Amino acid sequence: MADEEVKMDGWNAITEAFEKLYPGQDNPNHYGTLVPWCLGGPDPLDGISIYDGGDYWHFVTYGLSELYEKESDNPEWSGYGMEFTMRLKKGCYEDEEGEIRCICGNLQKIAKITFENNELFLPWEYIYTGQKNGIDLRQTSALTGFITVPDSKIKSIETSNGRMEFVEFIGATDAELLKIQAKETTVKELYEKIGDVTDYNRKSVY
Q1: What is the separation of C-alpha 175 from the centre of its chain, rounded to a whole number of angstroms?
Q2: What is the DSSP letter of 179?
Q3: CB 167 within 8 A of CB 60
Q4: Which tens digits make up the pLDDT trace of 93-122?
C-alpha cells in the first residue's frame, strides 16, 4: 500500500507568502535539518530559507508554527503562532556563506529556547545577554544582541492550522540594548533609528 501523502499546508503557506514577496524565487537557498527535533536532533527548526531582497538577504524559519498536521488544541493559532525572520545587509562581511550559516545557527539557538522553555519571542522585545562579542561569524561586529519587530514586509497569515505572524530580529549594539534595559529608550524608538536591515558594519546610535 502506498504511503500516505504528508500534509504540508503550514509549510506551503509560509513559502507562498514569501514567493509573493519575491516573485520568481521558487528555489531559494535553504538549510534543512538532517535529524528532526522529534527524533532527537539538535536543531528544533525543520529548516530556514533565504530570499534575495536586492541589497539584503531575507531569512525565514520553518518550525515554530505547525508545518504539517494540526497537533495543538488551539484552533486559532498555528503552533507557537510565529516564525522568525531576519534581513542581513549584503556586502558587510567577507565570508557570505559563513555568515548565512551563522545566522541560521543563531535562529536555531533562539528557537531552542522556545522549544525547551516555552518562552515566546514576541514583537517589540529585546534580547540582551550581556555578551560583548558580535553576533557575526568573526564576532567583531558592534551588534551583540537583537530587538524584535513585526516583519514589515510579511504580514500575519491564516493557514489551515491557524494564524501565525512573522517576528523579525534586528541586530542591536550593547549600548543600544543597555539604553532599552535602563528604560531610557524603547524598542520602537530604537527601531525608528536603525530600520529593518541588520548591518554588521553599523555604528551604535547611542
Answers
A1: 23
A2: H
A3: no
A4: 889 999 999 999 999 999 999 999 999 999
